[in-house]
Amino acid sequence: MRSVDPVIPMADSRLLQLLLLFAEHERDGRPPPGCRDARAVIAMQPSEFVQARRALLADGRLRETKKPGQTTVTTLTDAGWIAINRKPSRPHGTGPAIRTCLHCRQAFNSSGAGNRVCPRCRVLDIFHAGSIAW
Ligand SMILES: [Zn+2]
Fold it and tell me: I need a labelling partner for 15 at 20 to 30 A (CA). Which of 50, 78, 85, 98 fits?
């Protein structure tokens, strides 16, 4: 026996608005938005919030994770971040990303959090640094 709640189609723009709100909260390190948070910025009924949230979970743009002793946290999946044209968040900004070079302020493909100088400047850096052993 399966009991499936009737799914009422909801405009995707409405879902994306809610997804953006979840993204903002997640990026700022705040708890996921509740019904009241959502309704403060999106004109929706409480039942619509529940439906939209459920729809986002069902289509894989949000996921629920529960750590022992903590309440369930709803976060965006990679698909969720892509849906709102943002890069997936990485904890503490580690991992490869586009970063701004500390020397020339140009954006470059950084391999990780410790890589803050672009390849061109790194070459210059080696020439200028006295402590580098050749
Ligand atoms: Zn540079």
Answer: 98
